[in-house]
Amino acid sequence: MIARLVIAALLALAAFSAGAKSHAHESRPLYIEITETAPGDVSLKWITPASVAYSDMPSLSLGPPCERLAGAQSPAREGTQRYRCEGGPGGARIEIEYPLFNPSISTLARVAYADGRAQTAVLDPSKDVWNIPAEATFLALARSYLVLGVEHILGGVDHLLFLAGLLMIAGGVRRTLVTVTGFTLAHSLTLILTALDIVRVSVPATEAVIALSIVLLASEIARGDRTTLAWRRPALVASTFGLVHGAGFAAALGEIGLPQTEKVGALLFFNLGVELGQLGVVALVFAMIFALKKFAASAFERIRDDARLPLAAGYALGAVSAAWFVERTARALLPA
User: The pTM is what?
Assistant: First the structure.
C-alpha cells in the first residue's frame, strides 16, 4: 500500500510532464551510415532527428584517407555523400559540426565494409569527432548496443509510464519482482522473434496497442477495484502486454539495424541494456520510497493517508495515454 501511494504521486508528475509531447519517442540520435559499396568506394548517409531545429542542421565530413567525390551538401536534415577511401573507411575521421549549438543528442554511427564486416558505435552528445577503428571488435559492438538498449528504455516515456503503472498495482516487493519478471520475459521473447524477422507486426498498430495498454492500466488505477484481474494477477497482465511492448522495442531496433555478422550478439546486448535500464528505474523508485520513509516521516505519512493520489495519477496517466492512442491509431489507419 505504501509503495502504491508513493508511486501514484510519481505517476501523476510523470504523466503531466509527458503530456506536452506529441509522441513518446522523440529523443532519437543523429544517424550516420557509412557503406563501402565496393573496395574504396564509400557512401556517407545521415539522418537528423526531428528534435533538431532546421536552423541547426549538422555539417558532416569524412576525413583522410577519404576524398569527397559528390553528394548532397550539408548542413541538411538528411543526405548522402560519395567518397573515395583508399584501403576502405577504417581509420577515417568523421566530423560533426552544428552551426548554432550541440543539441545534446547522441550519434549512432554504423560502418559496413565491402567484405561483409560491420561495426556500430554510439557517440556521447559531447563527441563531435569519431575515428573509425581499423578493426571492429565484439567488445565495441556489445558496448554500443548495450548503451542503445539503456537509452531506448530511458527515453521511451510510454514504456516507463506502463512500468510505473505496473509497479503501483503490484505494490509490495515480492509482487513487484514477479510482475517485472513477467514483463521482462514477455517483451524479451517478442523482441527476439521480431528483430530476427521470425514474426512480423505492423509498427503503427503496435505503437497504438502500447498506448492502449497504458489506458487500461490507468483505468484500473483510477477505479481502485482490488478484485479485478489486473490487481489480483498483475504478472499475467504484465506478461500479456509485455509481448506488445517487445514488438515496440524491436521496431526501434529495426530503425538502428543489426550487423549481419554479429546479429545475435548485438540483439542480446540491446535487450540486456533494456533490462538494465528497467531495473535501474525500479531500483530508483524503491530507493525514493525508502528515503522518504526514513528521512521525511511526516511527508511519508501524508502521502500514505491521501487517498486522492491514486485517483489523480490514474486520470493523469489515462489522459496522456488516451491522446497517444488516438494519435497512433489515426497514424496506423491513415498513413502519410
Answer: 0.76
